[in-house]
Backbone:
């Protein structure tokens, strides 16, 4: 059965680009006929030329990789809803979920759907708003799509400036991107802040809450707000806590009218079968996620404690993510580069607002963390002296 529906007339229709509203999802014969002798899609019925290494028979192909994947990803959507609803008592349904090639696809689609281009041609187009320091892809996608970027920075303590945000938005501001927990800040945004912005009559666009690191945080997911508000979209991913960065699978969770528009615009078969299989297995076995997250949190506390004990570390910021942001006394970029040259790679963040002389380090295995701390101390002594 096809999942094609007429888009709901709701908030999304009021702010989406008019040409987008006329689009419908890609359809093919397989939407109506999914079994039998399938000779409709010009696939290679002889089977794939490459299979997982444990398969010897070229026709013993359980995933049927010669066939196009299901464009609707029903299993993944259902599993994600079960997992998220059990965690916060929410009521998101598969119609509230978009599955994409990482959350970056969702970011790009949202900008394409809701923001008319024109930033470089007289300023007639729409705009997004970001709150730096924040994730870089919002700006990249806006620039690619020729969309204006408005900024209201976080405070030096990495908190939102809500009055300033609501004063700065204009009728052109279609999307406000909030990163929670933030990157590089590692700080969660209280749901009360999200509520305040989403319910304000001063802003008529969508509030996009990027929760790539939410499973490392004690702050409740904003997915609990999706069925309450018609202008909140939450981005999530399997790249971080689920440890599946290599399969590129992310989600947008939002009002059904927004999700329908995303499904109308996306490429027909955006998520491949190998990714779908790995994603479904991960969402069926969330006990593994919980175990791994607990280990990361234990290591995060240990690394933070040891960083705080180093005389040249001036500040270790609190973290709700799987990384730590910390400030050294001087020469952070030189420290980062020398450590990388010696085989221990972190990330210099000193070029970000409020992050002067800061380094961001991902929490690794106990052995990796030990190597990082030892190398940091050795290199800093070399550079400082």
Residues:
């Amino acid at each position: 059965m096809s999942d094609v529906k007429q888009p709901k007339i709701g908030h999304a229709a009021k702010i989406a680009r008019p040409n987008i509203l006329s689009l419908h999802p890609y359809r093919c014969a397989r939407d109506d006929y999914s079994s039998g002798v399938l000779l409709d899609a010009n696939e290679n019925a002889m089977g794939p030329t490459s299979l997982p290494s444990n398969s010897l028979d070229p026709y013993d192909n359980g995933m049927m990789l010669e066939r196009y994947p299901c464009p609707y990803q029903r299993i993944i959507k259902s599993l994600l809803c079960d997992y998220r609803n059990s965690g916060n008592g929410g009521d998101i349904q598969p119609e509230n979920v978009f599955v994409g090639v990482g959350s970056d696809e969702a970011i790009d689609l949202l900008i394409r759907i809701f923001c008319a281009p024109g930033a470089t041609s007289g300023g007639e187009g729409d705009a997004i708003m970001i709150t730096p320091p924040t994730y870089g892809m919002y700006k990249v996608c806006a620039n690619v799509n020729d969309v204006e970027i408005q900024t209201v920075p976080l405070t030096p303590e990495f908190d939102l400036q809500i009055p300033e945000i609501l004063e700065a938005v204009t009728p052109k501001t279609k999307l406000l991107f909030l990163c929670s927990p933030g990157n590089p800040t590692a700080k969660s945004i209280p749901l009360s802040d999200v509520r305040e912005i989403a319910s304000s009559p001063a802003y008529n666009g969508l509030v996009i809450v990027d929760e790539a690191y939410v499973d490392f945080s004690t702050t409740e997911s904003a997915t609990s707000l999706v069925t309450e508000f018609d202008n909140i979209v939450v981005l999530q991913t399997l790249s971080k806590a689920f440890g599946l960065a290599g399969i590129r699978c992310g989600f947008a969770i939002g009002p059904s009218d927004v999700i329908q528009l995303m499904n109308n615009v996306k490429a027909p078969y955006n998520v491949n079968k190998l990714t779908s299989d790995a994603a479904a297995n991960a969402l069926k076995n969330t006990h593994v996620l919980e175990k791994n997250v607990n280990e990361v949190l234990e290591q995060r506390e240990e690394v933070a404690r040891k960083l705080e004990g180093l005389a040249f570390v001036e500040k270790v910021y609190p973290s709700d993510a799987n990384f730590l942001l910390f400030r050294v006394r001087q020469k952070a970029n030189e420290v980062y580069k020398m450590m990388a040259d010696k085989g221990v790679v972190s990330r210099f963040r000193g070029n970000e607002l409020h992050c002067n002389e800061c380094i961001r380090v991902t929490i690794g295995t106990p052995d990796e963390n030990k190597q990082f701390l030892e190398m940091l101390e050795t290199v800093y002594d070399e550079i400082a002296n």
User: Anything to note?
Assistant: The chain has a mean pLDDT of 92. Residues 49 and 58 are 7 Å apart (CA to CA). The domain at 74-285 is CATH 3.40.640.10 (Aspartate Aminotransferase; domain 2). Residues 286-308 form the longest helix (23 residues).
